[in-house]
């Protein structure tokens, strides 16, 4: 990977990690489902006029829009609102890798390799320690909601495997558009929407960041990198997201990790990193019958 593209990969991880701090700011201004609806509205409406028609069948766009846009982000935002620390959430949410592997094995008949099973076991152990330690001092509802968000993310990853969008940014714009109306309907049924009449600069800035910086810019750069390199080269940079998330939460929100949580976080990151890094090494040393095609092309 060239130095310029390396910096872009780290930049995306930093954007997505800092996003968890911005979410806390936004959730101080809006109810969680309404905040999610505003995020997708701001991400979809301007961009729809520039990205063109979707390049995949509508059934996949609607499915991912409901599972990822509505369910995953509702669980995530409600979990954060319920008190789950943003830094810890950025780490626990990475358990989506575990759910993706399990769901792919069930639905796509993709048999996990021994190194993947080892990694999942380490990550599950780390998540279990975090749950136990967090549950000693805080209600487990917020933690359970973040896990539910990760499970929905895993389902959406399998759906995206079926969809195989050639342009990740265009796909995400249309997924965002699908999520808008269901989220506003859920908010109207369950929340006080009067916050719309009290919109101030901090709320507007939070919506703008999560919509335009985290969603459009972040996925735009990520999709560009996936078109340039194999997914095994790009994917490990996602491990930096919880690192930036926890550092940002410490620097801007004053959140601290206990020693036990830090050790458990190391287990989770090790469990996620081992299959990626060893799998990449195996791909470099394997004798292949034909050249590998970079992901996304």
Automatic annotation (TrEMBL):
Keywords of this entry: Membrane, Transmembrane, Transmembrane helix
Topology class, membrane: Multi-pass membrane protein
Annotated InterPro entries: AA-Vitamin_Transporters, EamA_dom, EmrE-like
Transmembrane is among the record's keywords: yes
UniProt-listed SUPFAM superfamilies: Multidrug resistance efflux transporter EmrE
Entry's localization field: Membrane
Residue span(s) of domain EamA: 6-131, 141-274
Transmembrane segments: 7-27, 33-51, 58-79, 91-108, 115-134, 140-159, 171-189, 201-226, 233-253, 259-278
Family recorded in the similarity comment: Belongs to the EamA transporter family.
PANTHER family per the UniProt record, alphabetical: AMINO-ACID METABOLITE EFFLUX PUMP-RELATED, INNER MEMBRANE TRANSPORTER
Protein name as annotated: EamA family transporter
């Amino acid at each position: 990977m060239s130095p310029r593209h390396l910096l872009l990969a780290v930049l995306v991880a930093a954007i997505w990690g800092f996003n968890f701090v911005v979410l806390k700011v936004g959730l101080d201004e809006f109810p969680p489902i309404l905040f999610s609806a505003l995020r997708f509205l701001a991400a979809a409406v301007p961009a729809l006029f520039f990205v063109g028609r979707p390049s995949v069948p509508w059934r996949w766009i609607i499915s991912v829009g409901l599972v990822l846009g509505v369910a995953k982000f509702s669980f995530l935002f409600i979990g954060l609102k319920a008190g789950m620390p943003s830094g810890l959430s950025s780490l626990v949410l990475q358990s989506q890798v575990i759910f993706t592997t399990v769901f792919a094995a069930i639905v796509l008949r993709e048999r996990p390799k021994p190194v993947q099973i080892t990694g999942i076991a380490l990550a599950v152990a780390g998540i279990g320690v975090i749950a136990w330690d967090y549950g000693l001092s805080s209600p487990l509802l917020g933690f359970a909601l973040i896990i539910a968000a990760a499970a929905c993310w895993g389902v959406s990853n399998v759906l995206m495997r079926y969809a195989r969008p050639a342009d990740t940014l265009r796909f995400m714009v249309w997924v965002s558009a699908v999520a808008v109306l269901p989220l506003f309907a859920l908010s109207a049924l369950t929340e006080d929407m009067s916050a719309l009449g009290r919109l101030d600069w901090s709320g507007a800035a939070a919506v703008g960041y999560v919509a335009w910086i985290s969603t459009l810019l972040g996925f735009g750069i990520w999709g560009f990198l996936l078109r340039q390199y194999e997914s095994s080269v790009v994917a490990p940079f996602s491990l930096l997201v919880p690192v930036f998330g926890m550092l940002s939460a410490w620097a801007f929100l004053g959140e601290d990790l206990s020693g036990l949580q830090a050790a458990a976080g190391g287990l989770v990151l090790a469990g996620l990193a081992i299959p990626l890094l060893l799998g990449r090494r195996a791909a470099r040393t394997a004798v292949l019958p034909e050249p590998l095609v970079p992901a996304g092309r």
